[in-house]
Fold Gluconate 5-dehydrogenase.
Amino acid sequence: MADLPAMFDLTGRVACVTGASAGLGQRAAIALAAAGAKVVGVARRAEALADWAEQTGESAATVAADLSQRDQITDIADRIATPFGAPDIIVHAAGINTREAADDVTPEGWDVTLNLNLAAPFFLTQAFVPAMKAKGWGRVVNFASLQTTRAFPGGVSYGASKAGIGQLTRAMAEAWSTSGINANAIGPGFFPTELTGPVFADPERAARNAAQTCIGRNGALEDIDGPLLFLCSDASAYVTGQILMVDGGFTAK
């Protein structure tokens, strides 16, 4: 049996984490850096990224960019590869939820949601696949959702994008895993982040969500660390095309 700590050791790896300015994206960036990776954090808010990078030290770099602008993906990819070289690991945590009711969905809200939540993970990964193939090793971790398989109020565009992430993850695995590039997704339950701010602002709603889980509580940011490191490391060498729900058993009930 392989040495367990070594299986999760990311020393010498380069990771890119989108949505690294806050929430689960920033937690992912912190966890990967702690495991030994050099991490490039990507988000729109340069100041928040800079705060994270300052706390992390020399193993961190930042790229302030709007990934919803599809015509900028190639340029953004070049900027991501500049500090440490092309990444071996890509974590797609950036996302938006406009929470528009079905009757009120606008073309603008639809486009920004699908571009950021679904198109960016594909095209940004595609830009780095040649370098991963050359190394024979890569890890792609998409962010799915409870809405990958369930319908929530106000979630038409968001739910469509996250259902798409489920199939995108399987399609990435089919396309690239024979080259050593494993693609999987994490499906978070309810965690206290900016994206779920409206949920946690309502204590009664937050309590109902906690009661829906098998464990009996909502997620804490540190709950993402283990599943993420598993999917980003050699520990998941024979795991690809899967969605790992990190939801306390919410979807089991």
